[in-house]
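Q: How do we represent a protein-ligand complex in a form that can be generated token by token?
A: Start from the inputs.
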Amino acid sequence: MSTEATYEDLLDAFGRSGCAICRLATRRADRFLASYIYEHVNDVDLRSQIRSSRGFCEPHGEQFLEKLDALAVAITYRDIINSLVVELDASPHERGSSGAFSRLIANPWRRLRARLAGVRGREVLAVSARCPVCVAESAAGERAMDVLAQQIKDERLSRTLAEGDPLCLTHTQGALRRSGRMPALISRQHQGWSELRDRLLEFIRKSDHNHRWEDLTDAERAAIVTSVRTVTGTRVRPADDASAETRKLRRGGTNARRAP
Ligand SMILES: [Zn+2]
Ligand SMILES: [Zn+2]
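Then emit the structure tokens for the protein with zinc ion bound:
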């Protein structure tokens, strides 16, 4: 399930809106989820990894749901929730009205199961791995920043960096950590953030009742959302980044020949 962004992808992303690295990272995350749904739901190793991470993190759990494949969700989360129930059964914690710890002491079979499940001595219901989509997304972002740093002296990259949206804060830091010699990037960031700051100032000025008759420009309106995203970055693939992968709304949400 590996599809790394190339230098050409990076050049293309710098020519589009928003943080170029977020765009490539979220594209990777989206493809990871699509590939999991369509090809890897029955992949034993990946399912084991997903069991360890207790499924996906909140944003990627939402994106998994948005893929509208109910059977893939059912297969994946039946497995996860089943393992939670089994671990609860084996845990020494209290369940129901009777004292479970004393029940554990009194019940050798339960005590044996707890020992076999390795529950004693470690956190009950522990999450022992990162969300695999986060792992893929973050690796793609790191890789894209490596390519940026390696190619920073390339003429085509310099031309592309001369104009366009700034990177988000996290990816700016990541790029600058790789190389202290990125004048074209610094200049792009400076210009992008300065313009954004000035648009916010105009937004504030025009919000004053003395200037309410002055219309806001599209850029000033957009600055409200962009200002937050340029600091936080984004975990959602941009709408204009949709590829040929079309979402299929399945009646009942099924893929053929899948075993739970
Ligand atoms: Zn970013
Ligand atoms: Zn995640």
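Residues 183-207 form the longest helix (25 residues). The two ends are 21 Å apart (CA to CA).
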